[in-house]
Every structure is written in structure tokens, then in C-alpha cells.
Amino acid sequence: MAKTLLMNTLPRPTFRWLKNNHTEGSLLGEGTKKAEISVAANEGVVTALTNTDALNPGYEGVNKEALALVANAFTNGFVIDVDAGKKETVVITFNVSGDAVNENTRIRINAGAHSQVDVLYVLEGEANTAHAIQLFTEVNAADHAQVVVKKVQLLGDNTQQLEHRFAHVGKEANVEYINIELGGADNYLNYATTLAGESANFVHDLAYLGDKAQRFDIAMLMTHEGRKTTSDVHNIGALSGTSKKSFRGTLDFLRGSSQAEGAEEDIALLLNKDVKSISLPLLLCKEDNVSGNHAASAGQIDNNKLFYIMSRGFSESEAKHIIVESMLRPIIDRIGQEELEEVTLAAVRNKI
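The chain above was modelled as a monomer; its predicted structure follows.
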């Protein structure tokens, strides 16, 4: 029997009777096959990971035990090194088709001062039996660096996904995440960012679409250490079938983060009565003169909007397709690869 693990625990627990301080889960499958991974990058930019020292030893990811597997016993490890002032693009594709895999991939992104780094993850494939894939990314953005990490997740119904990601952002550096999460059975995602340098900036846009019994369990922690730091998080998606989404977003303003600004937004469109959306935006503060904003909304499709579209000659089903796609498309259009964008849009249309 698989061991029960506490996933995505809140940094500061709320009332226990709400049963939302964490999610109970376990790792699926015991596969032995590695995923097929391809890397597209300029020569010398991506090398094998040999230094396993943690960028932040205190980071526990989705779950401390699960993170230890990918941090210390990874099946694949890569370092993306971009020297100061350089500009690089890296695409890493994970394919888990066929027999169940047991994939634990660890990636370190080192962005030198004034560098520009664009990294794209593509996760795809339909496995025959239940299994888990883990991805652990550490981002070290030096002063004035520009880092963009994009992710398109198109995994099959038998795959459980755990993603752990930590970023350290230097002075006037900018880190941006773009996530499109469409596949997978259970998806546990944990993103922690420390805005350490003055005027460091972080933006995260995540789009998801759930159907059947899918689960999206998402935790984000934005820690403001430096002065005038900014963070802006948007979590948006739609749920159908008996799918479920949990969002735990925390803005943490530490002493010394004067004039920092943080915002988080969670929007869920509920396409039927059997879905469930939980949103826990949390604000922690130890500093004066900061601005923290959070908003959450969950509801059905607006009848006026539905009527307006149907009055233009579309059926009710077509109108719902248009509304859901219009929510997700602005994020999908930022992938930057036309062919992959079309594949992603096709996956969205097939699920609605």
C-alpha cells in the first residue's frame, strides 16, 4: 500500500476543520523505465548536473520526502548555464509514452548578470499504466537577469505529475513563468520564489483545464526580501466532469521589503455541479509600507455572455467552447512556437 503524503502544506496553517492546510496523496506506480528526454540548445549551454547542493536547503517542494527523491536520486540532471550578458533559448521535451516510467529530473538554471534565458518544457505522452514523473527546477537569476520559463503539459490520464520549482531573484532581475497544464491524473505543483534583490520582479501566469477526475493542486509562495520588489500571480482555468482544483497562494513580506508590492488572483470557471474549486490566498507581513492584494472567484458561465454568443448563431456547446478557449488562449499564445501553440489549442478543444 502506498504511503500517504501531505502535499503542498500551507506555510501558516488555517483552521484545521476546513481540511485545507494540505492535500493527502501518494506516489503512483513503480516504473523503472526512464522518460525519453530531448534537449535543444546551443553547444555548451546545457551540461550534466554534478553539484547537487541545494540553492535553498530549506525548500521542501510539494512534499519533503518526494523532493528528496528527485534532489538526491534523480534519473536525469541538467545545468543550464548562461554567462553574463548572453542570450540563450533552451527547449526540453519529456515523453512518457508506453511502459510506465519512474522519472525524476532535476534542472538548475544559472542566469548571469544582464543575461536573457528562455526555457521551454514540453511534457507529453500516454503511458500504459499508472506512474509518476517528478521535475525539480532551481532558478538562480543574478542581478539584472531576465529569465522566462514556459511549460506545456500534455500528459496522459495514467500520469501523476509532481513539480517542484524554486527561484532566487537578484537586484532588478525579472523572472517570468508561463504554465499551461492540461493533462495528467494528479498534478501537484509547488512554486516558491525569493525576491532577494532590490526591485526584483516575478510574474507567474498559469492556465489549467480539468475534466474527468483530474486534480490540480497548486501552491505558490512569493517571499519578498528586498525593497521595491514586485510579484504578480494569475491562476486561471476551467473544470468539468468531477475534476478538482486547489490553489494555495502566499505573499510573504519580510522585514526589509519596504515599498514591495504583491498581487495574486485565482479564477475558476465551473462547467458543472460536480467539480470542486478551493482557493486559499494568504497574506503574511512583517514590514510597513508594502502593498498586498489577493482575489479569488469561482462560478459558472455568465448567462448574459452565453446568450450574446448564441445570438450570433452559435449553439450552446459552441458558445461554451468559445468562452473557455478565450480564457486560456492569451496564455497559450505566449508559448512562442506556432506549431506547439496549435497542438495545445487542439488539446484544449478536445477537452471542453
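The two ends are 35 Å apart (CA to CA).
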